[in-house]
Amino acid sequence: MLRAELLEVYGLDPVSFEVAGGECLAVQGPSGSGKTVLLRALADLDPVAGRIFLDGAERNGFSGPEWRKRVRYAAAEPGWWGETPREHFSQGEGLDQLVTTLGLKTIQLDQGLSRLSTGERQRMALVRAMIDAPSVLLLDEPTGALDAKATAQAERVIARQLKKGRAVILVSHDPAQIRRLATRKLTISGGRARMGRA
Question: I need a labelling partner for 153 at 20 to 30 A (CA). Which of 38, 119, 141, 190 fits?
Answer without folding.
Answer: 38
